[in-house]
Amino acid sequence: FFLLSRFLVGIVTKKVFKKIGLKTETLIVEIGENIKSLKSLARIKKKIVYGALLVINDIIFLVIAFYLSYYIRFHTGAIAERTSYYFIEANYIFYSVIFILSAIFILSLFRLYSWDYIYRGSGYYSRIFKSVIINIIVIIMAGYLIDLFTFSRKWILLLFLISSFLLFLSRFVIEVVTKKVLKRLDMLSKTIIVGIGENAKRIEDSLKKNPFEGYRAVGCVDDTSRVFK
Known about the structure:
- The chain is mainly alpha-helical.
- Helices cover 66% and strands 7% of the residues.
- It has a three-stranded mixed β-sheet with strand order 1-2-3, with helices on one face.
- The radius of gyration is 24 Å and the shape is flat.
- 14% of the residues are buried.
């Protein structure tokens, strides 16, 4: 989205500038130029862009999960059911907004949009799972507090399973793609490890296994200022 938006804005701006007689040499338009601009961003800006992309990803797949579970519950197979008791369309649309907003808020509380707190060991995916569970509880509580209609328990179960699956799958794909992009574009910060020996080796191995940290160890330095590559 970042690259596409800059590409489209660049094209439109370039045409407008040409039409009114302004210079266009400094405009960033081509895909290659956009990739270079992304590489040249400050580290904090890269984190913000990445976090924004994760938010967009989660919103898209949460919307898909909500309406897919709704469709399966009320419009397919033996469990399909449409009665006036559920007031289906209006109420479920209303709760879809609550579901998505609360999910984004809870995921942010678990620091799942912060570059510095994601992709660190097995705790990453367990935090996603906990976030989904808490969000489902929020939806159930909202149903009781607002008291507009009675929830379908099958729909709640489907919502939990589908949203968990889609979030896990999408985040896994993003993790794999990000790892390849960081390596291919050489967007890792070159880093010197202060110290040598086993501890330095463990740190170096950790940075190699987790490129999402944003660092690439290029060598070690000891207390005599000698550098080892």
